[in-house]
User: Which sequence fits this backbone?
């Protein structure tokens, strides 16, 4: 209890009727909620509502009704006990603020209806199925029907679709990661049927081998899987390559795919096991915490990294949330560690979203994991499908419906598209290929590419897919197709669905560890989860392309083959062939003339080599437009 | 073709700064909370780190203790140093035998004897090297950038025709290569700021030469042809776009680097033979340093004498044309070079031969060229070694090397365990004191730090201070600040500065 002398120091209560919303709420918001609101309860004190506020915390009631001088809250903000001053961080409250709090308490601590400091209902969690706007065209794509009001509201008229050639190059690269082979491209161009575009998408999706080899890289980045990397040296890491390849080749339903990673069998346990370096590892990077961080990031679009060390400053997640999920993966009770200091408290295993149901608190880890997998993949979890929809949208359109893609508690620029696609995806048994087909068949996807703008732009308006760069693997595979030189052999043993081993049409980039060329072009070392690769070219990359030995050797051998296979043929046919392979088109008259001069007649190896190099350096080759 | 065809006519600096701008526009990490950062006046423009990979024993190099010669049957703890000590140019500072040339230039530098490595548990060299080079212990939730990348990002290139971060002498194909790659990177700062790797200093010229056997003339023609195709390419019609621009600009930068006069600095063949021999005594033109990495042999280090020397010579040439951050390593390969799990004494004879002449010459050459004042040289290693103690005396960790009861075989004579409670760092130039000693270690085992301990955060803060970077500087990644020194807590050791 404060002494009489201390009481005499109390500022007088404000002498007017206090307005909670205008005068008290700002104080609570600025100085209290960081520790006692938004799901946080330091000292077991929550100010979510008037009830929890009055109830107080571990040391008793916060206030004595109508008696501010006797209220514990006032004692704390006055700092009578120097070891126990509130707020704990920052400056003390001003006398004016304390006077307002006193008056508010004395006047009955009125709390305006509808005001809550509780953790907000998370965005993009509950499934929602928007109605499809009517459309005059009977077969209109759902995305386009949903976007029609958007375009109208933004007073933009969607541009006409790109031509067949550009479309074909786009979908080849987006579905199977390869540039279209010239003969297939010509056949597509010659096709006069109305539905040929969607049929091309389906045909590519049905190429299970190349589909899998393209999407391997996307998932390897996210699941931190590679043939080489940190951790393997001590057995502190395990590959999931075979499992991943098979899952993609057979188009495993996404809910099962996720369940097998969350509650894994030996073949898929590498992801949840994480990367273990030899030696003592910081508590926030223990394998079970890595699992918590990576599962929430990859599948739910939630960043738990900050919260693995302390209550997050950038979102509402708390240390207890992170440890709750980590605890599911721990072998025994898990003590919480706050910024490297043990707290003595044990976190009960739980999932980050209680809205999806309580987790069974079994002492058996296998049971807990199985239940966790059920929670994450249940139909009521609208976040799981939305997160993947958004990632794919980002891949195909250059920018997510929600940005950044790892922060799914942010609103989408078009919630109807996100929500509808997520529901449709789940309705179709979490069929990823169905989802891809819906996106690529849309008019929205077929609009001309627009310049990529800064990712963080807030005033974003959708005007079409953004220009993208080929990934390292796409670039290497495109050079493979152009030069006829792929990698020698796969780094591991991959059994295909037909029972054969390593039986691939070509040894593509995803089948081998990163070499200097792939590293330079941005294939990450997969030490951390990577969900988006850098969109810009760098000088070091350009140096590797300009004088690196790997690309030079590929082009030299490609040129050799080209020259050898066309002896006695006019250099014109060679140049045209190279253009078709590289750019999917014939050279213009001017290009042909320039190229023929370079190549020489008869074609010289050095000239062809330089032609191949120049073509692969063109934005037309390196960008997806 | 409006915008990019005239880039070649633009000034160098202009292009480089435009590249930086485009990198910023692309969402590269920005500086967080810039207003709280104190302005620091730089005392150096260039940093050269000389990396003694594998754990350099302090008592065998720059902090000699009581010498005991080998005797068959001696007790394993009978020796603190396996070499006698020698005087240096500075009274009161003695080195270990075999470092005579460096001893002669000690009056140009500052010696820290109290560097203390982190407590990372069971030793993995590459993990301590990661800690030394980034200031953070792995694993980390975001990819931590290397010291050189932070300088490259923060300060930019000193000469735009020279990559800002050059890494000399390390191959990435050995047992811990993946772990080395994990920190030899710009991490989240983005690969624009990453290392320009030159694993073989004698082949440095190839890294900035047209590929294969391409003549300079053909190289120029190829580029002209490319420009013509570019001008004719229909995609050019898509208008300005930062990706296209960054692509073209990066190619222009690369081409410019390859054809710039600064590229000559990479070519050691242009250095007079007498001058090379000051770095590599007895060097023969065309000499290769490609010993087989057979860990059982004790001769590897002997056969590689000269490789590090060429790296130092290359570093001097690059510093002369305006490199920002250069690292030269004796190369970390598990169980080789400084990583002596056996034959510690005999192998260190060779290791000292590897480093003594070139480091002393590097200091003298930079001084003679008037560059030492603005170039900070830092010699360091991930930790030290001892014959008996693994880890720290009060925090022993799992031994990796068995010590016999009696030393019968000379191969057991040396520092074979990993000691983290002391270590030497040498600094020259760039504003540090001359002929100065910082820190003290015990004269009897454990020869641990007893005064003025320096930890990695403070060492980094000191290096950063020399080039004008605050230890509290932070880059924003995933909305959190990531500091140049852990939590912004590094404090420069002011006693080091003149």
Assistant:
């Amino acid at each position: 209890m404060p002494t009489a002398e201390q009481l005499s120091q109390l500022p007088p209560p404000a002498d007017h009727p206090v307005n909670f919303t205008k005068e008290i709420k700002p104080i609570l918001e600025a100085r209290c909620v960081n520790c006692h609101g938004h799901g946080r309860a330091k000292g077991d004190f929550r100010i979510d509502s008037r009830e929890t506020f009055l109830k107080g915390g571990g040391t008793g009631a916060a206030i004595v009704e109508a008696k501010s001088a006797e209220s514990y809250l006032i004692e704390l903000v006055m700092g009578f006990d120097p070891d126990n001053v509130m707020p704990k961080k920052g400056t003390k409250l001003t006398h004016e603020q304390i006077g307002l709090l006193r008056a508010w308490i004395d006047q009955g601590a009125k709390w305006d209806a509808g005001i809550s400091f509780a953790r907000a209902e998370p965005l993009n969690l509950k499934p929602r199925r928007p109605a499809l706007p009517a459309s005059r065209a009977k077969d209109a794509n759902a995305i386009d029907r949903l976007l029609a009001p958007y375009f109208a509201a933004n007073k933009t008229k969607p541009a006409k679709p790109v031509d067949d050639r550009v479309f074909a190059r786009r979908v080849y690269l987006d579905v199977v990661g390869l540039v279209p082979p010239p003969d297939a491209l010509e056949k597509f161009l010659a096709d006069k049927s109305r539905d040929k575009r969607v049929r091309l998408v389906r045909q590519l999706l049905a190429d299970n081998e190349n589909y899998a080899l393209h999407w391997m890289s996307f998932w390897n980045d996210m699941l931190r899987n590679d043939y080489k990397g940190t951790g393997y040296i001590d057995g502190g890491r395990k590959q999931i390559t075979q499992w991943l390849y098979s899952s993609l080749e057979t188009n495993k339903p996404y809910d099962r795919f996720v369940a097998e990673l969350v509650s894994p069998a030996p073949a898929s346990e590498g992801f949840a096991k994480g990367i273990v370096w030899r030696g003592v590892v910081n508590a926030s990077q223990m394998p079970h915490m890595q699992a918590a961080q990576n599962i929430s990031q990859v599948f739910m679009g939630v960043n738990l990294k900050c919260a693995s060390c302390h209550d997050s400053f950038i979102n509402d997640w708390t240390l207890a949330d992170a440890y709750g999920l980590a605890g599911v993966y721990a072998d025994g009770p898990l003590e919480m560690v706050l910024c490297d200091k043990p707290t003595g408290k044990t976190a009960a295993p739980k999932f980050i979203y209680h809205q999806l149901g309580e987790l069974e608190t079994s002492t058996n880890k296998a049971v807990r994991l199985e239940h966790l997998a059920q929670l994450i993949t249940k139909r009521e979890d609208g976040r799981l499908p939305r997160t993947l929809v958004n990632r794919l949208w980002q891949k195909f359109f250059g920018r997510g419906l929600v940005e950044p893609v790892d922060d799914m508690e942010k609103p989408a620029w078009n919630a109807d598209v996100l929500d509808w696609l997520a529901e449709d995806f789940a309705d179709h048994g979490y069929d990823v290929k169905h989802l891809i087909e819906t996106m690529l068949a849309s008019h929205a996807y077929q609009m001309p590419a627009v310049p990529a703008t800064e990712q963080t732009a807030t005033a974003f308006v959708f005007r079409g897919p953004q220009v993208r760069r080929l990934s390292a693997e796409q670039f290497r595979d495109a050079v493979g197709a152009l030069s006829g030189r792929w990698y020698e052999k796969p780094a591991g043993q991959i059994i295909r669905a037909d029972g054969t081993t390593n039986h691939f049409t070509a040894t593509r980039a995803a089948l081998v560890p990163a070499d200097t060329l792939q590293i330079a072009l941005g294939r990450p070392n997969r030490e951390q989860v990577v969900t988006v690769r850098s969109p810009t070219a760098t000088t070091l990359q350009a140096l590797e392309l300009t004088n690196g030995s790997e690309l030079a050797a590929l082009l030299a051998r490609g040129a050799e083959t080209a020259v050898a296979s066309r002896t006695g043929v006019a250099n014109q046919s060679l140049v045209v062939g190279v253009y078709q392979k590289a750019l999917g088109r014939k050279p213009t008259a001017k290009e042909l003339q320039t190229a023929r001069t370079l190549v020489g007649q008869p074609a010289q190896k050095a000239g062809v080599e330089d032609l191949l190099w120049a073509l692969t350096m063109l934005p037309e080759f390196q960008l997806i437009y | 073709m409006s915008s990019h065809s005239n880039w070649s006519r633009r000034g160098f600096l202009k292009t480089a700064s435009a590249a930086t701008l485009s990198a910023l526009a692309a969402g590269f990490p920005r500086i967080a909370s810039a207003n709280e950062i104190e302005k620091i006046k730089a005392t150096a423009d260039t940093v050269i780190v000389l990396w003694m990979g594998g754990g350099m024993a302090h008592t065998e190099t720059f902090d000699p203790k009581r010498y005991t010669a080998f005797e068959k049957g001696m007790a394993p703890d009978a020796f603190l140093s396996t070499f006698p000590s020698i005087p240096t140019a500075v009274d009161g500072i003695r080195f270990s035998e075999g470092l005579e040339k460096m001893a002669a230039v000690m009056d140009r530098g500052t010696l820290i004897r109290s560097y203390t490595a982190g407590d990372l548990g069971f030793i993995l060299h590459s993990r301590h090297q990661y800690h030394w080079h980034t200031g953070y212990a792995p694993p980390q939730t975001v990819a931590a950038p290397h010291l050189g990348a932070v300088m490259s990002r923060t300060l930019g290139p000193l000469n735009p025709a020279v990559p800002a971060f050059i890494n000399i002498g390390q191959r990435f194909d050995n047992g811990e290569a993946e772990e080395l790659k994990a920190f030899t990177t710009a991490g989240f700062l983005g690969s624009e700021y990453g290392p320009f790797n030159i694993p073989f200093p004698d082949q440095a010229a190839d890294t900035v030469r047209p590929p294969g056997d391409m003549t300079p003339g053909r190289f120029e023609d190829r580029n002209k042809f490319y420009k013509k195709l570019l001008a004719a390419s229909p995609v050019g019609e898509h208008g300005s776009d930062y990706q296209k621009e960054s692509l073209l600009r990066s190619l222009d930068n690369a081409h410019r680097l390859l054809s710039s006069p600064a590229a000559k600095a990479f070519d050691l063949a242009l250095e007079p033979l007498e001058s090379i021999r000051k770095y590599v005594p007895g060097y023969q033109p065309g000499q290769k340093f490609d010993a087989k990495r057979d860990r059982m042999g004790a001769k590897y280090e002997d056969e590689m004498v000269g490789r590090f020397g060429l790296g130092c010579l290359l570093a001097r040439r690059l510093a002369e044309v305006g490199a920002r951050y250069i690292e030269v390593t004796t190369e970390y390969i598990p169980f080789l070079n400084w990583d002596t799990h056996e034959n510690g004494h005999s192998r260190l004879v060779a290791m000292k031969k590897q480093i003594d002449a070139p480091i002393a010459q590097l200091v003298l050459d930079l001084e003679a060229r008037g560059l030492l004042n603005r170039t900070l040289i830092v010699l360091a290693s991930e930790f030290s070694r001892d014959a008996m103690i693994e880890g720290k005396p009060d925090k022993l960790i799992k031994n990796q090397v068995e010590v016999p009861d009696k030393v019968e075989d000379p191969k057991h004579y040396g520092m074979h365990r990993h000691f983290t409670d002391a270590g030497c760092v040498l600094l020259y130039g760039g504003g540090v004191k001359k002929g100065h000693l910082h820190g003290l270690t015990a004269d009897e085992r454990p020869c641990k730090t007893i005064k003025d301990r320096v930890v990695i955060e403070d060492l980094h803060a000191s290096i950063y201070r020399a080039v004008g970077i605050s230890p509290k500087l932070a880059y924003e990644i995933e909305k959190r600040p990531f500091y140049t020194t852990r939590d912004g807590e590094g404090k420069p050791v002011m006693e080091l500065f003149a």
